[in-house]
Amino acid sequence: MKFKCCEWALYHLVINADDLTYCCASFDKKLTFKENYQGELIDVDDYIENRKKFIEQCKQGNFPEVCRDCPTLIENDWDETPGFIDVSVSNRTKCSCDCIYCIISGGGKSEIKKDLNTRKTYDVRPLLNQLKYKNMFKPGCHFIIGGGECAEYPKGELKWLVDFVFSQNGSIEFLSAGITYSDDIAQALKYGEAKLKVSVDAGTKKVYEQIKRVKGYDAVWKNLKKYIDASRKNPNAEVTIKYIIIPGINDNIKEAKEFIKRCRKVKCERIEINVEFFWMNENYDKPISDSLKEVLVFFQQQPNLCFSSNISTHIRKWLEKNLER
Q: Are the C-beta atoms of 143 and 31 separated by less than 8 Å?
């Protein structure tokens, strides 16, 4: 049946440090399944019943308040069969990086960062095993492994997650700062259906340390080369290097060109461009500076000879709107 609904709410599960949600489309508005969650087994039948109620609400056009203005609501002939096509594992919050734009720490707030780095959390494995036993993973389910820093998970946990995903014939995506090297990530890139995303955001050490607030520039590029080398012969593996544009810091041609130069040096075949979350929210409808416009156009016009550039759809629309001004 055709009706307006959301893929995230129907088929996704986000496992956070203190709750289980259907989506992470917004950090201040989330459609939540279970609050105050600490790793206990869940009532799967209760989840399925809540999902049915959500579907009925959507069919009647009576969307939950947190969903009403969300762009992911689209009309489609939705499969109403329960099951996850996408699972985000984000229960751990410790990270050796300290990005000034970090969404989890409220834009790099030191007191929140300290709490995240010392917070005790739960083991996600019992929940995943329960969902496997209940046949809740659809064929080819995609698992996003974040954190925190997934390369710094407790000993053996990341390997268990990799083995678990591949035992389900699923795919895996690692979100990492790249400062700490992980053999488990490298092995996944070498042999499985796997992606790695590392946000470097700079071409020079000075700007990298200004954004990340840690010393890790040389280690990141060294590790990226090793990861890319590991993935080289695997057609099902991807390594993406991200550049999040932060107006006033890295929105200049010199930095962008140095970034591209480093990407070519490690033989990167995929880059991803975005604009800092909080800045974008506050300035989406405002004119942009000549410097920012120049950098966006530079990235947009890069030839695909050595790499492919992936500028997200909403950024592209935003760019087109500003170029018309």
A: no
Q: How many CA atoms lie within 13 A of 230 on its CB side?
A: 25
DSSP 235: T
Q: What is the pLDDT of residues 97-127, one digit of tens each?
A: 999 998 787 777 878 888 888 888 999 999 9
Query: What distances in angstroms separate CA 50 from CA 6, 32, 33, 42, 57, one per listed residue?
Result: 15, 11, 8, 13, 11
Paired with 88 in beta bridges are 14, 144
Query: Cα–Cα distance between 178 and 182 in angstroms, integer?
Result: 9
Query: What's the CA gap between 23 and 86, in Å, rounded?
Result: 10
C-alpha distances (whole Å) from 300 to each of 16, 124, 145, 315 are 34, 40, 29, 11
State how far the Cα of 309 lies from the Cα of 301, in Å rounded to an integer: 9
Question: What is the per-residue pLDDT across 165-213, written as a single tens digit (0 to 9) for each?
Answer: 999 999 999 999 999 999 999 999 999 999 999 999 999 999 999 999 9
Strands 12-15 and 84-89: parallel
What single string gives the DSSP state of each residue in 240-260?
A: EEEEEE-TTTT-SHHHHHHHH
Instruction: Note if the pTM is more than 0.85.
Output: yes
Instruction: For helices 313-323 and 290-300, give the axis angle rounded to 10 degrees.
Output: 130
DSSP 175-210: EE-SSS--HHHHHHHHHSSEEEEEE---SSHHHHHH
Contact 272, 197 (CB under 8 A): yes
| Cβ atoms 310, 242 nearer than 8 A | no
In angstroms, what CA-CA distances link 225 with 35, 65, 243, 264, 267? 40, 45, 17, 10, 8
Length of the chain: 325
CA–CA dist 263, 27 (Å, integer): 31
Residue linked to tokens 């759809």: 313
Q: Residues with Cβ < 8 Å from 140, sequence gap 6 or more?
A: 85, 169, 170, 171
Q: Residue 309: beta bridge partners?
A: 271
Helix (H) or strand (E) holding 157: helix 157-167
Q: What is each CA distance from 22 to 6, 88, 116, in whole angstroms?
A: 10, 10, 22
